[in-house]
């Protein structure tokens, strides 16, 4: 499903963020991306949904060469990849329903189909009763659940989550992990960049450690392995 072959990324200022990564991630895997700040984790994630393009090497997502992809095909790629950010990135003047529906309206889904799908995902994230709320009327955990609902409303095969529990209290963070586990159990490949040592060591999944732009560790049921 995801393959990187000898991938390098050097920014215009000369900073080398990724230094020759080779990895494969299969269908329905749950993978933690760990490592110290500045190690290259965010660049690694952004290259998968083509926010960044590798300087050299090959990135294959669902059989498509992302680096060689024409710009006009990028929106279609991104419909196959849901992305969840640490700071939610919700549209403040839209309701919960409207924030989630927006992803379907962009691809001109019918109103009936949109309503059905949006209510399905809001039910999954336990926010069906808050469909008419605005983001600032929600707790941080609820806002993150809206962000996750929006990311999966297109039924993506891959869900990328960059520090999804970073701004949340511990109890809320565990709830978000339970939700991500449910999504993964439905067949979605979940890739999660995180600094949360407790979560990684409790929800034991595959761990890919990135340090200095290199994969330094790849373990089937790994531990966090760094001091916070």
UniProtKB/TrEMBL annotation:
Q: Which GO terms describe its biological process?
A: cell division
> Entry's SMART domains?
AAA (SM00382)
The answer to whether the entry has keyword NADP is: no
| Main localization category | membrane
InterPro entries with a match to the protein in the record: AAA+_ATPase, ABC_transporter-like_ATP-bd, ABC_transporter-like_CS, ABC_transpr_LolD-like, Cell_div_FtsE, P-loop_NTPase
Keywords assigned by UniProt, alphabetized: ATP-binding, Cell cycle, Cell division, Cell membrane, Membrane, Nucleotide-binding, Transport
Which Pfam families does this entry report, sorted A to Z? ABC_tran (PF00005)
Question: Record's superkingdom?
Answer: Bacteria
Matching NCBIfam families: FtsE
Protein function: Part of the ABC transporter FtsEX involved in cellular division.
PANTHER family assigned to the protein according to its UniProt record, in alphabetical order: CELL DIVISION ATP-BINDING PROTEIN FTSE, IMPORT ATP-BINDING PROTEIN
Partners and quaternary state? Homodimer. Forms a membrane-associated complex with FtsX.
Protein name stated in the entry: Cell division ATP-binding protein FtsE
Q: What is the protein's species of origin?
A: Guptibacillus hwajinpoensis
